[in-house]
Amino acid sequence: MPVCKPLGRGLYGVRVSLKDRIARVLFGIEGSEMILLHGLIKKSQTTPKPDLDLARTRLKEFKRHQ
Q: Alpha helix locations (H) across 1-66?
């Protein structure tokens, strides 16, 4: 499985292996900047929709204030 993968609509996820868990850091790219938007501990195969929605909302807010 790739360490980094696109999640759609400008959102990407980085897989992080911790001692006994898997985490994700969700981010977006704006110009030459990487914007870290949300982090979570994975409890299932899929990334929960509320976490994706939160990251997308934060990305929209960031772009709106640029």
A: 49-64
Q: Say what the pTM is.
A: 0.89
pLDDT value of residue 64: 94
Sheet with 4-8, strands from edge to edge, namely 4-8, 11-17, 22-30, 33-41
Query: Could you report the per-residue pLDDT of 16-66, keeping only the tens digit for each?
Result: 888 999 899 999 999 999 999 999 998 888 899 999 999 999 999 999 998
Range 11-39 burial, b when 16+ CB lie within 10 A, else e: bbbbeeeeeeeeebbbbbeeeeeeeebbe
CA 38, 41, 47, 49 torsion-angle sign: negative
- Amino acid letter, residue 29: I
> SS3 of 3, please?
coil
